[in-house]
Every structure is written in C-alpha cells, then in structure tokens.
Amino acid sequence: MQVSVETTTGLERQLTVVVPADRVDGDVAKRVQQTARTVRLDGFRPGKVPVKVVKKRYGQGIRQEVIGEVVQQSFYEAIQQENLTPAGGPNVEFKNDKEGEDFSYTATFEVYPEIALADFSSVEIVKNSAEVKEADLDQMIETLQKQQAAFEEADKAAAEGDQLNIDFEGFIDGEAFDGGTATGMDLVLGSNTMIPGFEAQLEGAKAGEEKEVNVTFPEEYHAENLKGKDAKFNVKVNKVSAQVLPELNEEFFAKFGIEEKTVDSFRVEVRKNMERELTQALKSKLKEAVFSKLVEINAIDVPAALIDGEIDAMRRQAIQQFGGENANIDPNMLPKEMFAEQAEKRVKVGLLVAEVIKANELKVDEDRVRTTVEELAATYQEPQQVIDWYYSNQEMLNQINNLVLEDQVMDLLLDSAKVSETELSYEDAIKPAAPAAEEESEEA
Predict the structure, then answer these.
(1) How far is CA 21 from the centre of its chain?
(2) How far apart, in whole angstroms, are the C-alpha atoms of residue 393 and residue 45?
(3) Which CATH number fits domain 2-110: 3.30.70.1050, 1.10.287.470, 3.20.20.70, 3.40.50.150?
(4) Stronger pLDDT, 54 or 312, i.e. the higher one
(5) Residues 6 or more apart whose Cβ sits within 8 Å of residue 363
(6) Helices (H), 148-249
(7) Model confidence pTM above 0.85
(8) What is the pLDDT of residues 371-429, one digit of tens each?
(9) Residue 275 and residue 429: Cα distance in Å, rounded?
(10) Confidence of residue 433 (pLDDT cuts 50, 70, 90)
(11) Which of 70, 74, 66 is nearest to 28 (CA)?
(12) CA-CA-CA-CA dihedral for 305, 306, 312, 315, to nearest 10
C-alpha cells in the first residue's frame, strides 16, 4: 500500500492511498464464492449456482461492499503509518476503482493542532470573594415568601408588586393591530411581562379607571411588523390586588422539606443553600476568568469539524431547554451563527485544557472526586443512595472526573499566575458569568 500526505490549508490534510489490485480483487473473488454457496436462484440447486452467474448478478454490489471495507481499513493503517490524528471524519474521493487495476482514493480531513503552551506566569487573575450576610438571608427569605404569595383585592392605587386585572386594546397610527388586544388579563407590575414602559404607566391606577399608555416596541421585537413602532394602548383597570406574603409558619416550612419546622431551622437551611450556591458561583467565575486568559494567550487554529460538532451539540441543548427532549423541532433550523463564537471558544478551551493535562501528566484526584460527589449528594434527602448511584454509573462518574480534572488544571494555572482578590456583594457574586467554563471545556 502506497501512502502520501499533502498539507492543503492550515490543519487540512489530503491523504492519497493506493491499494494493490490483488487485495481488492482477491477479497471480491472470495466474497463472490461465499455468496455462490449460499445464494438461492431459480433454476439452480442450493450451493450449485455458478460463480460467473453470481458475479454477473451480484458482482458490482459485492465490489462496492469490499471497497468500503478496504477504505476503512486502509485509512486507519495510513493515518497510523503517517502518525496523523484526524479531528473529524474524512471526505473520501475515489481516484480509480476499476477491476484489475490498483485501487486509489484521496481522503481529506483536518488534524488536531500542535500546541506549545504559553507561559502563564505573567497572567493577572482577579479572584472574587463574598459572604452571605444577614441582610442577604432576609432578602432571600422574602423572595421565597413572594414566590408563595397570594393576591387579595384591595381598594388602593396600584404600586409595583401589585396584580392588576386589565382589558386593553392597542393602536399604531390609529389602527388596531393583531395581538394588541386582551380581556381580563392579570398583570403583576414590575414583572416586566409587557414591553418596556407599559407597566410603569399603570402605577397609581385604581380599579375602574381607564388609562392611555404610550410605548415604543423594541427594535429587536419578535414581530417584524411591530419593531420600533410607536403604539398607544387604551387600558381599563378592572381590579387591583395587593400581594399578601405567607407567614413563616409550619405550613410554609413544610413546602421546603424542613424537618424542624421553626424559623431558626429554616434560616439555617436557607443559609446553607445560599452558601452552596455562592461557592459554586465564585468557582465558576474564577474558572471562566482563568480559562479565558488561557485562550487569550494561546493563539491556536481550531478544526472546523470540531466547531461544527460543538454547534450541533449546542443546538440540541437549546432544543431541550426550550422544548424538552420530545420537542418536534429540527435542531438544524437554528442558525449556526447563533452558536459559532461560543462553540469556537468551547473547542479552544477544551483543546488547551487537554494540553495542560497532557503536558503536566495530571491524573484525576480520587479524593476530590469523592468530595465532589458527597457535596452533590448532600442536597438530597438520602445522600448515601446518591453516592452509591454515582459510583455505580460510570458515565455519570466520568462527568465528575472531568470536572475535578478541570479544577486541577485551574489550580495549576492559578499557582503560576499573578492573583489579586476583590470582595463582591452576595448579589453580584451569584450573577452568572460569561458562558460557564465547565461547559466550555467538555472537549477535554
């Protein structure tokens, strides 16, 4: 077998493979003979069909089958021989597949980039810190109360947080428009359910009042015919209802699975959850900062095949998030451009993290894996059952191993970087960072 390699552009390689005729023709002849022993044809006894007849009727199909197997086997042999690592499947083009002549084809594919990691010691990283204060705890408990709140009709002027029952009709240039009318709709002021400015203009209204609300549809509004248009809404307020928070009592605590149904126990449990969320948020921000710098100082080419694969994965994730696994939506309907930039960064992070692991011969820390599993299990009622489940499910355990290995990479890079610290409020600390680094480095 003859093999030659040509670099076309960047990471693209073109492999030309020539396979001796006797390898293909010999396999075809064997396959034809095997078929002759088993095929059933009218006018012939089983196993007595002449080879010539079998070759005439089935020869072309058998040859294509053999060629497919030869391409698969010879391609693997060729990339092993040339020490190549494809980053995606090859695009195969036959050059000569005539019987009696050497079989030849070209395989075009991308390879993984060669990476020489830049020195991380000059990188500056800001490490955030924060704590859960009593005021944060009080605000969280109030938020939980609001989630369970009821609304009671009240004889008062509407304020933010109140629920209004309204009828409205919208007009653009004096003409009513589709979708601009509603009857008996409940609207909580401050929920930002309506377009900007709509809810604020209803503050102060009372039941029975009619108000004129003037707004401008956003330029990015989903309805093409309404983008950027000025509109007037005639609104009638049917009812104003005030928000009534539930009491902090046993009935309220039971909704959150609190065993000791007291205010003190509830505050302890809420604080634990807040601190757990805060720890994870700070870690995500730090990992995002470290891995972003890793990408910034290491300019690498990225195989298009890997980016396309990541885009496909992100499309499927988007469909699952918005429509569930059973959503009857073709992921390919979502434009590639929506995900291209983030997909490229994810692939870069994955390649670079993998290179750090390889260069430093990092092995997953089993103690950290155990600790991570136990921390995840602690949020469930039967922690030991969750721990046992993880350790009996290799796929899920591998996910934890990958996360821990990423943490080890982050720690290694931080040890060599210039790290400064800054304190954030709890609210700022738990705000999502840019795309989570945990997701971006799945390729590792």
Answers:
(1) 48
(2) 54
(3) 3.30.70.1050
(4) 312
(5) none
(6) none
(7) no
(8) 999 999 988 889 999 999 999 999 999 999 999 999 999 999 999 999 999 999 999 99
(9) 11
(10) low
(11) 66
(12) -140
Q: What is the DSSP letter of 260?
A: S
Of the candidates 292, 278, 283, which has an alpha carbon nearest to the alpha carbon of residue 441? 292
Q: CB–CB of 352/300 below 8 Å?
A: yes
Q: How far apart are CA 257 and CA 176, in angstroms?
A: 50
Beta strands in 65-135 (DSSP E): 91-96, 103-110, 124-129
Maximum alpha-carbon separation in the chain: 99
DSSP characters over 117-174: PPP-TT-EEEEEE----HHHHHHHHHHHHHHT-EEEE-SS---TT-EEEEEEEEEETT
| Domains 2-110 and 124-133+259-440 fall in the same CATH topology | no
Residue with tokens 């609210």: 427
**Separation between Cα atoms, residue 379 and residue 374, nearest integer Å:** 9
* Buried b / exposed e along 267-289 (16+ C-beta atoms within 10 A): bebbbeebeeebeebbebbbbbb
Q: What is the pLDDT of residues 294-346, one digit of tens each?
A: 999 999 999 999 999 999 999 988 888 776 555 577 788 888 899 999 999 99
CA 402, CA 440: separation in Å to the nearest integer? Answer: 12
List C-alpha distances in Å: 71 to 12, 32, 92, 326. 19, 19, 9, 37
Q: What confidence tier does 141 reach under pLDDT thresholds 50, 70, 90? A: very high
Which two tokens mark 2?
């003859």
Q: Quick check: 254 and 261 in contact, CB under 8 A?
A: yes
**CATH for 150-244?**
3.10.50.40
Question: Residue 289, SS3?
Answer: helix
Q: Over 60: is that where the pLDDT of 104 sits?
A: yes
Spans of all domains in the chain? 2-110, 124-133+259-440, 150-244
The residue among 223, 225, 125, 231 whose CA lies nearest residue 169 is 231
- Has residue 208 got a pLDDT over 50? yes
CATH assignment of 124-133+259-440?
1.10.3120.10
